[in-house]
Amino acid sequence: MRITKEEVRHVAHLARLNFSEGEEEKFTSQLNSILMYMDILNGVDTAGIQPMTHAISLGNVFRDDTEKESLGAEIALEGAPDGKMGFFGVPKIIE
Amino acid sequence: MEFNQLTIHELQKKLKDGSLTSVEITESVYRRIASVEEKVHSYITMMEETAIGQARAADRRIKEGNAGELTGIPIAIKDILCTEGVRTTCGSRTLEDFIPPYDATVVRKLKDVGAVFVGKTNMDEFAMGSSTETSRFGITKNPWDLERIPGGSSGGSAAAVAADECIASLGTDTGGSIRQPAALCGVVGMKPTYGRVSRFGMVAFASSLDQIGPITKDVEDCAIMMNVISGHDTSDSTSVPKEVPDYRAYISRDIEGCTIGIPKEYFVEGVDPEIRASIDTTIKTLEGLGARCLDISLPHTEYCIATYYIIAPSEASSNLARYDGVRYGFRAPNEENLLDMYRKTRSSGFGAEVKRRIMIGTYSLSSGYYDAYYKKASQVRALIRDDFDSAFTKCDVILTPATPTPAFKIGEKMDDPLQMYLCDIFTLSANLAGVPGISVPCGYTKGGLPMGVQFMANHFEEGKLLQIASAYEKNSKIERRMPEL
Amino acid sequence: MQYEPVIGLEVHAQLLTKTKIFCGCSTRFGEEPNSNTCPVCLGMPGVLPVLNKKVVEYAVKMAISTHCRINGTSTWARKNYFYPDLPKGYQITQFAHPIAEAGYIDIEIGGAKRRIGITRIHMEEDAGKSIHDDLSPFSYVDLNRAGVPLIEIVSEPDMRNTDEAVHYLRRLHEILVYLEICDGNMEEGSFRCDANISLRPKGQKEFGIRAELKNMNSFRNVQHALEYEIQRQRAILEGGGGVPQETRLWDVSQCVTHSMRGKEEAHDYRYFPEPDLVPVVISDAWREDIKNALPELPMEKRERFLSAYNIPPYDAGVLTASRALADYYEEVVRLCERPKIASNWVMGDFLAYLNEAKLEIGESPVPPAALAELIGIIGDGTISGKIAKEVFEGMWKSGKNPGEIVEEKGLVQISDTTELEKIVEEVLEANKKQLEQYRAGKDQLFGFFVGQTMKATGGKANPKIVNELLKKKLSMS
How large is the ipTM? Predict the structure, then answer.
């Protein structure tokens, strides 16, 4: 086992996903076989290898500090599931 | 022959000499759509009204004598590319009603040259899939056999070109999503070098791997499309400020003295014998044209799938965090509180494959697992790139099969994600290394299914790919067939 | 047992760029909600960030000013968490390779110097703002602030009491404002502070378990929250308990800290390299260019004021509290060449009127040249110091030059001895009773005669001459 049902539940929480009991079962077994396949990488010696984070090496890409026209609140909120008085409405945030 | 069956370069001539109008071409495309779309289902959204308007404007522009390379040509756009005012679903319930207030840079470029937009094509949800079966909007069928998948994730774009429901299309390729469906549908597909084409406005799947590219009927059309969509964009920090050559100039050049590397790791068990045989024939054809083929090795090939299926889901898990039901897109009803709203929205907005990849990615990045998964994969990725770097000191291009098998049956691999992932085995190394790749038809199986050969070249050497591919295309003696629909 | 607090501070400073860090939207505060937004800062599908060059320059300015090592190559990372005011579901920040590391600033308390280490400075984007309404089951999100550039300045756990913490913060604040890279407005959230605080038995080397304090939006709040927290933790430790590792919120209305989340609920931010942005490379040449363009910092300016103008340390401190005030003072001195009198005037009447009118230095109706002229005519005896106050008031109200005011009001000082002698005699004549008392030994009446003489001249008499004349006359019998 690479990942337990409890871990699947924890990862699902991190990703803000919900699974039913049955789905959880299925996901756990699928993720296990996928993660088991990933074990193949343990056979590669990567000591001292710099991780590759970009496909092409570039540096210092900037824009100037000049203002561009904004969309404006009306367009920004056009597709909002719950636009309220110029704001994006969400169920109450409780810390 | 109907106009919609012609290539871009054939139509360009007719538009230029006035023997044909864009409106006529566009109408022929929609006639074809009316007769076959029900069977193939290449599209999610049709844009007929605006298309006719664009065609009229193109005809005026042609008359005025300032036509660009794609003026008046009906193009299909993968529904992952944002189109201002036209809904962009990414094949997902999450974006079912999303109408972007902006165009992707490539869409803007096509508009600027006066292309005609036929519609938005079907795709695997968020480009996650190799069969176009994970779309929220139904399955696209392979025009060569309607019981089979067209490949994916740009299955709609490939099927639309193969079925003549457009002249050419745009797809996106994160692990083979242009080249694999192009091969399975018998058309040409190119994934450019990472940074060659702006990603701005492409709904991100895995940002360090994604590239937009053309799917066309032949190699010359591919060059034409590349001429239009390539180039630096200040809106994409990873877009490379490098001059774009005239790709069309590489068409029909001879390939005498070209060196072609054949990586032994790509000719292993599991490759369909008919594909194997057609690749052997392809090699002979190229040698006959004066190319020199040599055996090379890409020693880390066996690690590509594992590497890819850690890196791509990791980036995706983060890229897809924005679909939270707050600012746009789908929000599930009846939430009890904020956390519940997030979970319900995301659980019912995303399909199973997307959720699976979000789970793999979240796990790979999570505390305690980062080093073993994400970091390890990023290190192996560096070794895979080094393999390519050293191979390209020995050869101009690398030749491999585009896919291990021809198109499989719908539903065949839906319950076995790992088997599905293995479909990309020959294509995803190019994304990991950032190099360009092209898939070109190289024959048909006895059962009449298309097969494809893939060429890869070093960074920014798309010209070499087009040169080899066009030389091969012109000399391969593969008859141009049309799928019967 | 004696406990010693160990304090480290994390400061978020909003940078004074015109536009956001990754898009061209304005950073203006107080606009209509969600009006300063675009697809990029709204986190719409497919959009990409492009870095504002000014942000890098400002961060490097701060790094140099706090003696940090600038990393030749620094990279971007994503910090993943869900929150309605975080549009992309991740914050673009720096993690593994920040722009600068290993710096310090010196603070001085009661003449004793302390060096506070700076662990790192990194660039990042701000989140939006959520508004909560107690009466409604909803929260409201405004994304105008989403994408405003920040630098986070993380200190070493080098502070041992609240005074040091507040001094460190004030110095940091002062430098940011001096560099003109942050407006320093704590109420509007341009300068925010979180604190890590733990207690350990005095003499012990290892740190205790720390609490992270949030939500302190003034220097006073920081002071109070830290004081409260020291007491709270001490009480736990003295009671034999253990301090739990947690995040606590300062509640300004009740002056207490509340637990917000414990260690178990700590976020798993899943940091990883941001694929959409490329590394920032700071060449030696670029760093030198930025360094050469730096203004003189408050500490250096103070030292220079002390030696160049020979004014007391207190004066130097007040005058260098802001760059604008220091510049104003220096201009006055340049024109009048009387540093100490200039210091008295700038710190005295000038600042008093300015504060009264709630004006910025640049908005003052009295430019440096006018104040210098005023100091000049006091020096050459044209007017008395006392009259000068009246003249200054006139200048402030009318915006006129001191010369004009003096002329209009006929305020030129009377220094004519003959004329003054006559007036003094009249004053003595008119106050015979007091004269007798004085001569009988009531010396303190001397001031009374001075006052009467001044009054008789409408304050225009040269006080020095009046003094001399009175001494002479009163000593005669």
Answer: 0.95
